[in-house]
Request: fold
Amino acid sequence: MKKPGLLIGLMLLVFLAWGLGIKRTEPRPKTGSRQETLAAKIKLPESPSLGPLDLNRIFQEDHSWTATLPAERKRTLIITGDVMLGRTVNRLVIQKQNFSWPWEKVAPFLQSADLTLVNLESPLLAACPVISGGFKFCGDARQAEGLAAAGIDIAGLSNNHAGNFGEAGIKETAEVLAAKDILTVRDNKPTFRKINNLLFTFLAYDDTIASVSAERVREGIAAARPDAGVVIILFHWGREYTDQPDSRQIKLAHLAIDAGADLVAGSHPHWIQSLEVYRGKLIVYSLGNFIFDQEWSLPTKQGIAGRFTFYQQQLADAQFYPLIIENYGQPRFLQGGERRVILDSLASKSAKLAEDMNTFDKP
Reply:
């Protein structure tokens, strides 16, 4: 039998060890504790050190880092290439009685941004004739239902087909879209949209029917700049079926950025053209086609959609999503090797343009 004195001594030793902190574990702070309250009061920096945007960041495979940016200071914008809802596209949606058919495989992506913008290459008219050929484009007015269901917020109407049915056709198109809460932008008239308390201003110019003057672009941007947090310029320009911008496109793009534009996006060539970063600002010379019935060649069936992430007023990231148009008017985003081929081609074209610009700029 153990002696009581020895047992009492052992108990005293255990008590002293606990009191002196031997093998002592601190409890986790509970919800609502002082530790948690102090942690919640630590503010994030006003702007992370992003550095200027460049082609290396654009063409990196992983863009998931943008998810770490504070949501209240981040804005996302999607811009697509040419959307032509006339001719064969119009005939097919009427046959199917499904005005969302062209958008079905891409709508979830288009709906994922704070704002989505397309270049609309066809008026939308109640009396649009159903045809399969020619170059006088229009789509059934009910196609506005498809744009709205796909999440389109703004339609650009500064192009060489918006006026195929005159000013009356442009007016009817704007009214049809407005009825679905879709804004339009055209002819140097600014369109405004506030995203998370930051004002985005859009200006659009068509340089295909008549040359837009440098003064007009400068004046438009100067008028928009004082109130705008971000200024985005849409140009319809260049030569069709070419994969590099011509000197006219480059001159206009640089002029717009020198005047205060934050992003320039182009359409009309029907092919994907290169990117350029000029003075830290991105120029997308041509996004190619997005919805079109030009089934006769692979380059006219291809396009890219751009997703642009702004942190505060800075364009922090740009990511491009290659696509293929099938069945005369239904785009599908590419995956795997098919996707990589188009991105690698775009990177190569963009690097060549940068090299050419550096050579040109040297004395």
User: Anything to note?
Assistant: Residues 86 and 137 are 5 Å apart (CA to CA). The chain has a mean pLDDT of 88.
